[in-house]
Request: fold
Amino acid sequence: MTPHDPAAGLTREWLPEPDAGADAAPRVYPVRTEEDLLEARHAVRAATLAAGFGLVDQTRVVTAASELVRNAYIHGGGGTLTIERLRRSGFRGVRLTVSDQGPGIPDVEAALTDGYSTGPGLGHGLGGARRLMHDFEIRTSPGGGTTVSATRWTQG
Amino acid sequence: MNGQKPASVPILRLGDVLVTGLLDELDDKSAMAFLDELTERIAADAATGVLIDISRLEIIDSFVARTLSELTTTARLLGARVIVAGMRPPVAITLVELGLRLDGVETALNAEQGMAALGWFRTTVSGEGPHRDDAP
Reply:
């Protein structure tokens, strides 16, 4: 999928950026209204810029973020987006963590399949977001909400 | 915001073609309202072509893709041909990776080529135009 996939084995070992300023600390954004969806996109764009991502990588991450926060807004009844900037031996990363307290995803494998949709999308949202990111993890339980964590890396 | 209608994108009519565009800052509801308005204008103006400039869109996610597909289908049922023009290259790359092909949606590299496909051509002024100072 990606020519250089630094994802393998890196997710458990990430370190916060050493030059941790206000921009590098994790930031949490609400996902409650349609305006929040736009704000979330702006914040993700800014984080990818700060991490030195190229234009195509910026677009990939912002698009994935848009899918994930819209899922939380529509299916999860709203939630939060946490943006982290990561650094790991020659790579910089941006991790998105989207959490909601909705009904959960009953069949994660089905939800990751293209064409599966219970909402106003094309059914490519979750699976598409996974393809746009390097690391992708879903934690969900019936009635216990859903948390999706997704990271994309770039060299630098 | 505050219940006010957000600034809407103009829909211009050039002959039987409607010309408009999408802004990156449109939220979902505004985008749907705009496309409803566009559909009504297709019928009211008996348009046979619609050019939608999307060069301002910094991303297209599955929601926007679905919206464009549905608009294209609706317009076709009303007898109008939709051309989506000006997609940014990073957006095209991301759409493909997302698994979206915008099937059925006609595209053009830019608005000028889109208008040409809809039958509008930039004519070379032959020297007889009223605005030419050097006309014989």
